[in-house]
Amino acid sequence: MKISHIRREYSGQTLTLENSAKNPIDQFTTWLEEVTGTEATDPTAMTLATVDANGHPDLRIVLLKGVSEQGFNFFTNYNSAKGQELTQTPHAAVNFYWPSLTRQVKIRGSVEKLTESESDHYFKSRPKGSQIAAIASPQSQTIDQEQLLQDFKILEEKFQNQDAPPRPGILGRLSINCK
């Protein structure tokens, strides 16, 4: 198979000054609303680019959890590789790729932590199993699957009578401010 021959025709609405919003956040929000009706899975998935202490780039997929004039928000474990990289170099880029709209959006900017109360609010909004998984999982580390499952079960039993376990101090929101 020759991968150089793999191609599809790209068509869709042409972006012009006449059919776009003056404010880029408004334009992004319009496209996001449009893509949530056409993209089968994860329309809020974005590729997050960071750099490590040696200046080497790193990429991973994270989910957009909010957008406003202040920035593009996602949550992470501060002890993860991305959390540590963003602490060392508080700049990032994200890319959204929406094949159903034949569109992609690139955003770059500085990254900052937001308030603990906002992180608490987000953590409480997650399903309980997701909350427990966030506590049990040692991010960006080699894991033993049996140990991880055992830790999850222990925490599941520990918090079975609570509405929500306490948010780990290492989970928080980062905001990419593209101004």
Structural class: alpha+beta
Task: Give the strand content.
Answer: 25-35%
Instruction: Name the shape in a single word.
Output: globular
Strand adjacency order, main sheet: 2-1-5-6-7-4-3
CA-CA gap between termini:
45 Å
What is the makeup of the main sheet? Answer: 7 strands, antiparallel
Can you put this structure into words, describing what you see?
The protein has 179 residues and is an alpha+beta fold. Helices cover 30% and strands 28% of the residues. α4 (128-136) packs across α5. It is globular and about 55 Å long. The chain starts with 23 loop residues before the first helix and ends with a strand.
In short:
This protein has 179 residues and is α+β, with helices and mostly antiparallel strands. It contains 5 helices and 7 strands.
Question: What would the keywords be for this entry?
Answer:
179 residues, alpha+beta, seven-stranded antiparallel beta sheet, 28% strand, globular
Topology, pairings included?
Layout: H1 24-35, E1 45-51, E2 57-63, E3 66-68, E4 71-77, H2 81-88, E5 91-98, E6 103-113, H3 116-125, H4 128-136, H5 145-158, E7 171-177
Antiparallel strand pairs: 1-2, 1-5, 3-4, 4-7, 5-6, 6-7
Helix pairs in contact: 4-5
